[in-house]
Structure formats: structure tokens, C-alpha cells
Amino acid sequence: MSKEIGITVKKDENFSEWYTQVVLKAHLADYAPVKGLIVLRPYGYSIWESLKSSLDQKLKATGHENGFLPVLIPESLLSKESDHFAGFTPEVFWVTHSGETEIGDKLALRPTSEALAYSMYAKWIKSWRDLPLKINFWNTALRAEIKATKPFLRTSEFLWQEGHTVHATKEEAEQEVMSILEMYKKTVEEELAIPVITGKKSEKEKFVGAVYTTTMESIMPDGKALQMGTSHFLGQNFSKPFDVKFLDKQNVETFAWQTSWGISWRLIGALIMIHGDDKGLVLPPRVAPIQVVIVPIYYSPQDMEIVLSKVSEIKQALTKHNLRVHMDVRDEVTPGYKFHDWEMKGVPLRVEIGPKDIAKGKMVLVRRDNLKKMDLAFKDTENGILCVLDEIQQNLFENAKNLLREKTREVTDFDEFKSEMETGTFLYSPWCGQTKCEEIIKESTGADIRVIPFDAKIQDSKCIICKNQTTIHAIFARSY
């Protein structure tokens, strides 16, 4: 494969360019004609489908149902919760005309769905018998990201999942918040093989309109943080302006308690950055569109017949285990080209079978995570390949955990903090809880509080800025 076709920069030398090349050359996505938008290609969409299918099953198993919301929201509705809407105003795309005719009430292209969903919930909920109401929406959202765009990480339109639930009690709503966050963590760690740190956002960084926001954060190889998903306790902050209330069992009218939560295709961006290497994409088996690619090797018609027969047999055996298997029977390119092509696309396991392998009763396996080769007897095909795929999944997770450990440091001195932040890292530091100190750190270093971990050490320390005693320890980082 020529350098023009393959990845032409090294990951640790030009991370941004490397990332863009992987997105484009691995056929995940391409740039759309409108700045800030991307077109998701089938290979990239398949990864999203895998995540969507897994999470959808988990949500339905816990009593959530899917719904659909339109993309247009009238300005008059958005302004009902003014503080919330103000947080999105700079990013809103507006529809002002229908054909050549100017419309009266401007329509926003959905930046988020709270206002629209809750105006409907107010119509649907009348009694405690209607609760809990737990609806999930697989939507797109639109936010004007014109300047610093990056495929999957920062685009003007993105695929996401947003859940909006209504509960009779505060306790039930808060349980929902934590249950969803744990569901997200399980999905990201077990399927994307990316470790995350869970906790709360600070008051300054929480979702606008929420009582509090829980989050899961990860760090990328370039030292920047990426928010992987959030789950918000909204309290009654939205039920009151949108009149979401119900008659309880004592026939007393009361405002409901609400949550909202979501993840987006940003997870695909994290997947690329965490696991990819200088050859291109590296995919964990559980979300890979193709888990096993079989490359037949032959140089004569006689060999071709024998090899393709064996390859078909192997594929049939593997698909019985619901593995996603592809036979690369392209005759217009060489086996070497195929090897490089599938390595760039990140297929977890390559199987090579030629006439000499058949004579020896074995095949050659090549792992994408470490590029190691091994022989596997045909008689051990099914168990052998299933075991190797599990090893690849686990190895990618362990490598990512090592990255997280290497890039997380505990710092209590602000001069050291500023120095360490230049290297790109998660800095775990004591903070007094005051927004003023948080803002000083942001102004001085460009870093903000990514997460106040649930498992943070409870110990007396002095705030890294004001030196007041505190037991709060937060993780600071620059972010995407």
C-alpha cells in the first residue's frame, strides 16, 4: 500500500492530522459540503449501530421506551426555561422563513430536547399512575460549531441518544440518574474498552438548569479530556416552568421530579484516539463492524478452488457463533494490499489461509492489537478464534487503563500544577469548592474541572489556589 493510501503521519508526532487521516482513510466519515457537518459512511455508522443496539437493549430491559421528537422547536417554547435556553443561544440554528414567507415565531433546530419533551409530558401526565415516565430518543442535535470543528468530536450536527424521565419522588429520580450513569460506564468500558472516571460536575460546569450533573470522563493520548456521557438530576427545575405535575395517591397535586441523560457519537472519536496506532484504526471486537476478515491466498485456479472451499467452511463455522466475518476475495489487489487495508480499518483479527496452510491443517491468525502472528489448527477454529477475540478485547482495555494511570497525577502546588498541565494530563488536586478559584485555574492554565470523582479520597487538604482547608478533590484538565 502506498504512503498516499495509508496513514502518512505518526500518531505521537502530529496527533490532529493522524486522527483526521484515520477518520477519512478508514472510511468512517467524510466532510459534508456545509462547514461543520460530516457524512457518516457505512463503516462508521456500523460502529454507532453496534453501540445503539447494545444500549437500546439495556434501556428497554430497565423499563425505558423509545420515542421520536421533531427537529423544530418554537422560540416561545424554548424561552419558558430562560436560564437553560440562554446556555444554548449562541449555538442555535434558526429557521425564519417558510419558502419566501417570513414566519412569526422563529423555529430552532433542536440543540437539545428538554423544552419540547416536557411540553408534551405536561399533556400526558395527570396522575401518579402515569409515573414513572421513562422515554429515550435516538436523535440528531444541531449546535453551531463553525470554528474548531473535528469529526465526531465537535460538529454542527451529531447523532446522540437523550433520555428524559419523570418520577413521583426525588429519591426515585436520583436513583435513575445513577443507574443510567452506571449503564453508560458498563457500555463504554466493556464494549469500547475505554476506562472512565465517574463523578459530579462542579456548579460552574453542570448542565444548565440541572440541580447537579454526573459525568464520566476519559483522557485521550494527547492529554486532553473527553466527556464521554452525562446524567443530570433536574429536580423540579423544569417541571415547574413546563407544568409537569400529577395528582398523588392522596389526590394532592404536586410537581414531578425529572432527569435527563445522553451520549453521542463522540464515543467513536474516543475509540479512534484511544486505540488507534500508526497503521490506522484499531477496533475492539465487540463493536467492530467486521470482527474477523479471512484473506485467501492462491496463485492458480486449482489452488483457488481448494482455498475458497476451506475459507467458506471456516466462515460458516464462525458465523454460527454470531461473529461478523468477511471473506476478502478481491482479485484486483494483492494479498499484501489486503493486509494493509484491513489493518488500517482496524479489523480485530485477520485469518490467512493458503494451500500450504491447508496441507498442514492450520491457518495463520494476525491480531490487530499487537500485530502478533500465530498458527491455529483447523480443528480448533471456533474456540480458538473466540478466545483470541476475548484476549484482544481485554488487552485493549488494559492498555487504555495504563494510559489513564500514566496521565493522572496528584498535585497540590499551583506552580507544579501549571507546569504539569503543559504536558497534557489529568491533575487530581484539592479545591475549596468556590467558583472563584475554579475560574482562576481556568484563566491561568486553560484547564477546568472535568469531574469530582465519586471515589475521591476524603482527607483534609488545602485548596490549590486559596489555601483554605477542604476535603474536595477534583480532576482538572484541558478538554475537547
TrEMBL record:
Protein EC: 6.1.1.15
UniProt-recorded Gene Ontology molecular function terms:
ATP binding; proline-tRNA ligase activity
Main localization of the protein described in the UniProt heading: cytoplasm
Cell location:
Cytoplasm
* UniProt KW keywords: Aminoacyl-tRNA synthetase, ATP-binding, Cytoplasm, Ligase, Nucleotide-binding, Protein biosynthesis
As recorded in UniProt, coiled-coil segments are none
Q: Which GO terms describe its biological process?
A: prolyl-tRNA aminoacylation
Where is each Aminoacyl-transfer RNA synthetases class-II family profile domain found?
36-284
Which InterPro entries does this chain map to? aa-tRNA-synt_IIb, aa-tRNA-synth_II, aa-tRNA-synth_II/BPL/LPL, Anticodon-bd, Anticodon-bd_dom_sf, Pro-tRNA-ligase_IIa, Pro-tRNA-ligase_IIa_arc-type, Pro-tRNA_ligase_II_C
**Do you know which Pfam families this protein is assigned to?**
HGTP_anticodon (PF03129), ProRS-C_1 (PF09180), tRNA-synt_2b (PF00587)
Quaternary structure (record):
Homodimer.
Among HAMAP family, the record links this protein to: Pro_tRNA_synth_type3
Family listed: Belongs to the class-II aminoacyl-tRNA synthetase family. ProS type 3 subfamily.
State the function annotated in the UniProt record: Catalyzes the attachment of proline to tRNA(Pro) in a two-step reaction: proline is first activated by ATP to form Pro-AMP and then transferred to the acceptor end of tRNA(Pro).
Q: What is this protein called?
A: Proline--tRNA ligase
What is the species of this protein?
Candidatus Nitrosotalea okcheonensis
